[in-house]
Specification:
- The protein starts with a helix and ends with a helix.
- The protein is elongated and about 50 Å long.
- The protein has one domain.
- It is built from 4 helices and no strands.
- Helix content is 78%, strand content 0%.
- It has helices spanning 2-14, 22-30, 33-55, 64-87.
């Protein structure tokens, strides 16, 4: 299962233009970093979904602006906190 997700997340990250970097990408793949980063990003996205839909479920929050705020917060946490801490 770990190998499947490592291949899955590697394909997602490396198919972005400029995402594949010969030796570096191979090191990430061999050490299952794609798996760890991908799973943690998936978990944080699910946490944000639960917060928005089940904890903060209010008619006042049913507009596009709240969606954008949650999207930006999720991206910031995934990039700066999880992505940096798991790779280093």
């Amino acid at each position: 299962m770990k190998d499947f997700f490592n291949v899955f997340f590697a394909a997602l990250y490396e198919n972005i233009p400029g995402g594949y970097m010969d030796d570096f990408s191979q090191i990430l793949f061999d050490n299952y970093v794609y798996f760890r980063v991908g799973i943690w990003m998936l978990i944080t996205s699910l946490i944000f979904m639960v917060i928005l839909y089940y904890i903060l479920n209010s008619p006042k929050l049913n507009n596009w602006f709240v969606w954008v705020l949650f999207l930006i917060a999720n991206a910031i946490i995934n990039y700066f906190w999880i992505g940096k801490s798991l790779v280093l």
